[in-house]
Amino acid sequence: MLPQDKLIWDEAYNEEYDGLANIPTWEVISKSQFKLLSKGAKPLPSMAISLGNLDYHQWSKESMAAPVMSQRELRHLTSLAVFHKHTLKNCDVKQAFAQSSLPRNEEYVVKPPSGCPRSPPGTYWHLIRSLYGLRRAPKLWYNKLSSHLQSQWVYAIWLIHHVYSFVL
Q: Rounded to two decimals, what is the model's pTM?
């Protein structure tokens, strides 16, 4: 890797790590704490979280999936907005899936990514919040977002749960 590329990579890694650590997304635990917490289970490698394929919880499709807008619905809503001369806007929520806390009955302990310069050797991360790659991350994020919007008197339109409406 070229030196200038490494600087860019390190900066991006540190920004992501700091963002997740500041929420906080995990608590750092020792090997002995992990043994007490896990009751004999093995920690998930960090790759399992990013891939989502080694989740040891059994989930139904409904408990994992969040509503997603179809292309047809998006085209329809865009046409309506243009027809009514509304300005189209979008947003991006940094580390969106890490914004939702894990329920108490869902325990995850992961090994930090190999070569992580910020994690002391022999430590584990006990997850407090959801991370990208957990199978339930999209649903947990959707539930948190919906709950917040409803607290602001913004409600999902019946039958289209990813389109919200409010009255001024």
A: 0.70
Beta bridge partners of 109: 126
Task: Write down the residue that tokens 């994690």 correspond to.
Answer: 119
Report the C-alpha gap between 168 and 157 in whole angstroms. 16
DSSP string, the chain: --HHHHHHHHHHHHHHHHHHHHTT-EEEEEHHHHHHHHTTPPPBPHHHHHH-TT--S---HHHH------HHHHHHHHHHHHHTTPPP-----TTGGGGSBPPTT---EEPPPTT-TTS-TTEEEEESB--TT-TTHHHHHHHHHHHHHHHTT-EEETTEEEEEE---
Q: Which helix (H) or strand (E) element contains residue 22? A: helix 3-22
Q: Please, are residues 129 and 63 in contact by the beta-carbon 8 Å criterion? A: no
Distance from C-alpha of 131 to C-alpha of 102, rounded to nearest angstrom = 9
What are the pLDDT digits (tens) for 96-138? 878 888 888 888 888 888 888 888 888 888 889 988 778 788 8
Where are the domains positioned within the chain? 3-165
- Rounded to whole angstroms, the Cα distance separating 55 from 99 reads 20
Residue pair 29/109 in contact by the 8 Å Cβ criterion: yes
Do the Cβ atoms of 153 and 165 come closer than 8 Å? no
